Amino acid sequence: MSNLSLMRRLAMSFKAVAPGNGRHLAGKDFEGNLYFEKPDPNGGRYPRRTVELADPKLSEANYDDANISVQWQAWLRNTRKDPPTQAEIQRDEARKLLTVARAKVLDQAWQDRKAELALEQAQGRQAILGLASAASKGGEEATATPGATTAATKNAAPSEEEDPAKSAARKQIEEREASRKVGFKPQVQQGDTFEPQAWSPVASRRR
Fold first, then answer.
1. CA–CA dist 164, 193 (Å, integer)
2. Mean pLDDT over all residues of the chain?
């Protein structure tokens, strides 16, 4: 601690206990700030309360509320009657640290949950695209089936036609059946060019 800071502390302590001043030291926080109180010289209801900051670069007019605990701020504004105790401030600081730790845990849990939701959304989108692709392929195959069936039918049609040998044999059978019905027996010759000859009855000669 420098000599200037030591002298400043001694001066502040002397002012706090100086007779006739009416100001007394109400308390001190963990930052080293001193809090004073004295009766209102105008006879007002609320006493005048001031703070002397430990940081020489700051003054009571431009200090930041972040440098003073909530309990001491309430005391300076006369919203609480008694100054806070060291134990009260310690409990409040512990509560703040616990709140910050819980907030970090909750924030990490939310980040993890957002990652899970993003993954589930991506998987669902991929599944939908897969179903749409399968349905599209099924429609294309159904459209192509009638043409394929027609082509197969056309290709199979020539195989159903009879060859010339079978056709000639069937023709001979039909002619034989026809000759039986009219009362004559046709001459049967082998070959694909067989044609039945005309026949006329001849009268027998008497001897």
1. 11
2. 76
